[in-house]
């Protein structure tokens, strides 16, 4: 096991009705002079329709917190909206951002929070020209369990100029608090629930596939978390859209999948995320759907690296009984079951399944390695990435 430091400052407020605490919790960050205005950031979509935004506003008002609103965040959040937010925060002298929505709204809020305190172009952080060291505090009311941004250090933004989708990891971006009410997820379209499930599974798989020895505790935590996600996703997809307990398990799993607890003492891979970002950037596909296409292909490409690891994944997560298979067959059976699970919840597992243009594979492979080879489990260069895209193009 490697040396590590683990610290996660995000206060999680979990359960029914917890959005009503948004105001009181935000007010704790007010300055001594008592006047406090924040940026209230959202998409203008489901949170408005369901009445969630009004409930949050009521709670802010009751706590004496004023706000300026910025809506219009799109999935795969855009840099132009971030610039708009930075300008607004500066003009209105706002010192705190409350994001109400999913990973896209939260990531947009995090980018605004970084940019507001930086004299240069906020894209410098995403372009790796500058290290992010300070940001305004961000808090969240989460509406979709998926990206894990509610307690992660990351934000991922799409720059429309050139269609670049890039992420920044910075401790200062970690939200100060996040409100998670599983009931808020009842209104999710099944496709979005499925995308979220794929993303959280991917966040665990990225960490699980490591060559680090003696990480038994986190190995088993990863396997247990993946089993719980699969089991509860199946409940939701067999008539349990309003099953509070299943929604609660999935919501909490989404945070634990990406709050770095499961990374302790080990090094994750992250190539599949890097490869997927090219799909989202070019085709504007949902991140989770991109991952359901890429991750099985990444596993297939790497099975020969350490077959026993993939066979263990098949046995512990997918219940593949080793007595009936040799190691490689068992590992392949794991990929087969992973793909079938994704299909069963309505996700694509190939380029064709998502109607993506395979002629873009060479271009995407080149762009994926802009900053050098991807991945830690095995370093992947342009030709490896291209091979993974080719595997992903087969159903
Ligand atoms: O805008 P609305 O109308 O709310 O629609 C959203 C959106 O269309 C809808 N939705 C969300 N909550 C809902 C709802 N619809 C009905 N009822 C609700 N309660 O769901 C759609 C997707 O929302 P989005 O915020 O885009 O989803 P997600 O949370 O999956 O975020 C995806 C973004 O996060 C990035 C992804 O790359 C992508 O850009 N990621 C961020 C990470 C991080 N910051 O740590 C890590 C991840 O690996 C990921 O890269
Ligand atoms: Zn992800």
Summarize the structure.
With 395 residues, this protein is α/β, with parallel strands linked by helices. The chain is 47% helix and 10% strand. It has 2 domains: 11-183, 3-Layer(aba) Sandwich (Rossmann fold), CATH 3.40.50.1970; 189-394, Dehydroquinate synthase-like, alpha domain.
Structure, described:
With 395 residues, the protein is α/β, with parallel strands linked by helices. The protein contains 15 helices and 8 strands. α14 crosses α15. β6 and β7 form a beta hairpin. It has 2 domains: 173 residues, Rossmann fold (3-Layer(aba) Sandwich); 206 residues, Dehydroquinate synthase-like - alpha domain (Dehydroquinate synthase-like, alpha domain, Up-down Bundle). The mean pLDDT is 97. The strands form 2 sheets. A 6-stranded parallel beta sheet has the order 1-8-5-4-2-3, sandwiched between helices. The two termini are 37 Å apart. The radius of gyration is 21 Å and the shape is globular. Helix content is 47%, strand content 10%. Zinc ion (ZN) binds next to α7.
CATH class of the largest domain: Mainly Alpha
- Radius of gyration, whole Å: 21 Å
For the largest beta-sheet, the strand count, sense and barrel status come to: 6 strands, parallel
CATH architecture of the largest domain: Up-down Bundle
Q: Tally the helices.
A: 15
Distance between the termini: 37 Å
User: What's the rounded overall pLDDT mean?
Assistant: 97
Question: Can you give the helix content as a percent range?
Answer: 40-55%
Number of strands: 8
Q: Could you tell me which ligands this complex binds, including any ions or cofactors?
A: 5,6-dihydroxy-NADP, zinc ion
Shape: globular
């Amino acid at each position: 096991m490697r040396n590590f430091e683990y610290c996660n400052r995000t206060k999680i407020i979990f359960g029914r009705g917890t959005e009503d605490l948004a105001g009181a919790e935000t007010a704790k960050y007010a300055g001594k002079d008592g006047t406090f205005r924040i940026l209230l950031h959202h998409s203008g979509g489901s949170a408005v329709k369901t009445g969630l935004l009004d409930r949050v506003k009521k709670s802010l008002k009751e706590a004496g917190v004023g706000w300026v609103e910025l809506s219009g965040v799109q999935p795969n959040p855009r840099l132009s909206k971030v610039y708009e937010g930075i300008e607004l925060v500066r003009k209105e002298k706002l010192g705190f951002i409350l994001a109400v929505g999913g990973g896209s709204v939260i990531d947009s809020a995090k980018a605004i929070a970084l940019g507001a305190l930086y004299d240069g172009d906020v894209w410098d952080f995403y372009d790796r020209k500058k290290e992010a060291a300070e940001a305004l505090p961000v808090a969240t009311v989460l509406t979709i369990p998926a990206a894990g941004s509610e307690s992660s250090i990351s934000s991922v933004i799409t720059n429309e100029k050139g269609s670049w989708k890039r992420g920044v990891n910075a401790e200062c971006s970690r939200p100060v608090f996040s409100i998670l009410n599983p009931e808020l997820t009842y209104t999710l379209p099944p496709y979005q629930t499925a995308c979220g499930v794929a993303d959280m599974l991917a966040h665990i798989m990225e960490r699980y596939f490591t060559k680090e020895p003696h990480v038994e505790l986190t190995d088993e935590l990863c396997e247990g978390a993946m089993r719980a996600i699969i089991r509860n996703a199946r409940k939701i997809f067999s008539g349990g859209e309003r099953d509070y307990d299943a929604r609660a398990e999935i919501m909490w799993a989404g945070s634990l999948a990406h709050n770095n607890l499961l990374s302790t003492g080990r090094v994750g891979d992250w190539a599949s995320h890097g490869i997927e970002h090219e799909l989202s950037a070019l085709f504007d596909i949902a991140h989770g759907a991109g991952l359901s296409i890429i991750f099985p292909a990444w596993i297939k490409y790497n099975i020969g690296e350490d077959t026993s690891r993939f066979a263990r994944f098949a046995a512990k997560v997918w219940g593949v009984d080793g007595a009936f298979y040799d190691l490689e067959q068992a590992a392949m059976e794991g990929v087969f079951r992973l793909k079938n699970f994704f299909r069963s919840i309505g996700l694509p597992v190939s380029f064709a399944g998502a109607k993506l243009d395979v002629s873009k594979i060479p271009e995407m492979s080149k762009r994926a390695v802009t900053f050098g080879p991807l991945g830690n489990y095995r370093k992947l260069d342009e030709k490896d990435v291209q091979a993974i895209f080719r595997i992903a193009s087969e159903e």
